[in-house]
From TrEMBL:
Keywords: Cell membrane, Membrane, Protein transport, Translocation, Transmembrane, Transmembrane helix, Transport. This is Protein-export membrane protein SecG. It is found in: Cell membrane. It comes from the Bacteria. It is a multi-pass membrane protein. It comes from Spirochaeta lutea. Belongs to the SecG family.
């Protein structure tokens, strides 16, 4: 693994742990999902300013998503990108081998007689 991949993995793990901690520390100011779907919220959407915990949660969520996308991009396997073509090639190779084996068996039986 490259240094960049290790660095992204550390950032990913730290942001995940800190994100869980920040979400657990926040107090329940809103009404949860009921407030989102018109459950009688007192303020307009987008009019409310968040405190430091909500802003830190948003920033950590953004860092978490970016690091996960970065890890996925760095650890991709370009050789195995087309799974369907690889499966067809493997199936074709197996069927050719099966065909060759049956021909060889017929040839050996014909020469033995």
């Amino acid at each position: 693994m490259g240094i960049l991949s290790i660095l992204l993995l550390v950032i990913f793990a730290l942001s995940a742990v800190l994100l869980v901690i920040l979400v657990l520390v926040q107090d329940e100011q809103g009404e949860g999902l009921g407030g989102i779907f018109g459950g009688g919220g007192s303020g307009q959407i987008g009019n409310r300013k968040g405190n430091i915990l909500t802003r830190a949660t948003s920033i950590l969520g953004f860092v978490f998503i970016l690091s996960s996308l970065g890890l996925a991009w760095l650890n991709r396997t370009p050789d195995l990108g087309n799974v369907e073509a690889a499966a067809r090639q493997q199936n074709a190779e197996q069927s050719v081998e099966w065909w060759n084996e049956s021909q060889e068996a017929e040839n050996s039986q014909g020469s033995a007689e």
